[in-house]
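Aim 2 progress update. The chain analyzed this quarter is reproduced below.
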Amino acid sequence: MTGLFMMECRKAARGVAYWLFVLALLFVSIRQFDAAVDSELRRKDDPLSVFFTAPDGVYAGDFERLSDREMQENMMAGATERLLDSYRNNAYEYYPFGYVKTKTMSGEEQRMILSFLVELTGMSEETINGAAGKDGTEDFQISGGGAFVLEPGQGGMSMNESGQYVIEPGDWKYIEDKADITGASEDPENGFEKVTYDRFGEIMGVVDGMIGKNSYFGREMLALYYCGNDMEESPVTARQHREFYEGDHVTGAFARYYCDSISLVVLGLPALVVIELMMRDKKRGMKALVYPRTVSGGKLVCARLAASVCMVMLPVLVFPVKSLAALVRFCMETGVQLDIFAFIKYILAWILPTVLFVMALGMFLTILADNYFGILITGLLWLAGRPSIGKIAGGNYDLFDLVIRHNTLKGYGRMMENIRMLALNRAVISGMALLLVAFSVVVFEARRKGGGIFES
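Predicted structure tokens:
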């Protein structure tokens, strides 16, 4: 059995689909996960970072204390600030397939966004576009409480074809208190006093339609980022600080975020690995030599699936090691207790059941159809099995969710509140995978006796 298992591992490693999976996993790991770890460690003294420890022990208030009105104001301020930044850079982020993409607007679309910003902020087009203020300082008031400032002499302004002044993003600084800004507007009508919450919603709906599916200005995303949960990048609260250090022990939060980062990769590509492996043997006509009847169908199917799953899980376990080392170094330097096995535990609990299911499904369909039909079905499964945007904050699980989302380094308490459903979900998905393996053995034996892909 060991010899058969090792042979299948070597065959899986020689497949094109396997290395496509490895490259996709590596790309997502570096671009999304490693970048997040590096960013948080660089700004560990920033109140916005999960690493932040307040010298005086005083943290921001918990989101649960916000009233509906406060959450609406928070949403209007935050979304308008993001829209202003997106307009100035002509870069609008959205999530059409679960991963972020950036859209560049046309000149006409930019002018429409500009008109919305004028309405939302009460500022003139010239001010929004970067025309100099009376004291040579640029100010962009957000909800009457803050501004983007360009100090005199900074930046080299030029005008593009849309009539906008172009200034590098790094030349600007956002200051929360407008009283500290030279030349800030004193117009009491400036800000959101001119725009109702309903009108704000209408504007965001139009903007969302212009950008594409799941932009930051859609209703679900606005609710996620500004309506009382911790998806918004805001100062760490006392509860979040306690959960990060005492519940997650630092590494747990990043292990969870790593699993979220790779979730859509493991939902589809592993199936291609086992499908290609099986069909490659069929093309080479190797069944009679490789699979003698002295080996049971159950052993053959289980060895092939086990080998394929192990080869897929190997890079999943290896790729976060670099970032894990950086986190361990931080914890040792600061004397913080860490969970050294957090990545292994989360990967085996969150990722392995999904990998088992999609690979078992791919194997079953390939044995059943004797062709590449499994690719079509697993592709449709990838499209249908992606959780809704409403679940990316974590803590919201259904019984048959194929992947678990938790797109934030916060939210340990929210996960623990729903841990029973999470555990039941992973058990159900694993059970479905084992059931597909049993069906595969039955169909394999039938084909083995009657001819087909495993003819010997």
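Residues 419-450 form the longest helix (32 residues). The beta strands are 92-94, 101-103, 138-142, 146-150, 158-159, 165-166, 173-175. These observations will guide the mutagenesis experiments scheduled for the next reporting period.
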